[in-house]
């Protein structure tokens, strides 16, 4: 299930069900930090997605429960190694606080690491998609160029699931605008990728 979900995301980084399925698989493997990072990647695409929002709340509750269990184990271990210490010293001694804070920092770094790596993959996939779309518009433009000389030619332009009758000049303008938009997207994605890679290196 995890590999299938990852493949879906690689094929279409905007496919939100892929993030939901991947997070579900990670939750099943008790990889809660990875699941949170995956869900946040999906929410970066659609911030108010109901399934992902609900899943994130569930995972956070599971994570809190795990942290409570960990604290109890640490308290028990500290008490057994230091039987002469009162409960407050065993639970709140300097060493326990240090171990807890270091563990929390490591967990945060791990979450950032996986989140940044996923963001880089998504941005790079989007950049490649924009590049391909720009190429598609270029090919279409070159193929239709012989028909631009006369506005009497009937052409249809796809708008969502519909096809709209348009003049050759309208088609030409649409293609030129679309190519510029894809070029701008490609540049933005490249800049974002470089920025994320610098942040990613800082977490290593």
Number of strands: 2
Identify low-pLDDT runs: 88-95
What strand line-up does the widest sheet have? 1-2
Spatial extent as radius of gyration? 26 Å
The structural class is mainly alpha
Q: Give the helix proportion (percent range).
A: over 70%
Largest sheet: 2 strands, antiparallel
- In whole angstroms, the N-to-C terminal distance is 29 Å
Overall average residue pLDDT: 79
In percent terms, what proportion of residues is strand?
under 5%
Tell me, briefly, the overall form. Answer: elongated
Instruction: Spell out the helices and strands N to C.
Output: HHHHHHEEH
- The helix tally amounts to 7
Describe the structure.
This protein has 204 residues and is mainly alpha-helical. The protein contains 7 helices and 2 strands, in the order ααααααββα. Strands 1-2 form a two-stranded antiparallel ribbon. It is elongated. The two termini are 29 Å apart.
Observed structural traits:
mainly alpha; 204 residues; 2 strands; elongated; 79% helix; two-stranded antiparallel sheet
Summary of the model, kept short:
By secondary structure, the protein is mainly α. The protein has helices spanning 2-11, 16-28, 32-45, 50-81, 87-92, 94-144, 168-203, and strands at 155-159, 162-166.
Topology, pairings included?
Blueprint: H1 2-11, H2 16-28, H3 32-45, H4 50-81, H5 87-92, H6 94-144, E1 155-159, E2 162-166, H7 168-203
Antiparallel strand pairs: 1-2
Helix pairs in contact: 1-2, 2-3, 2-4, 3-4, 3-6, 6-7
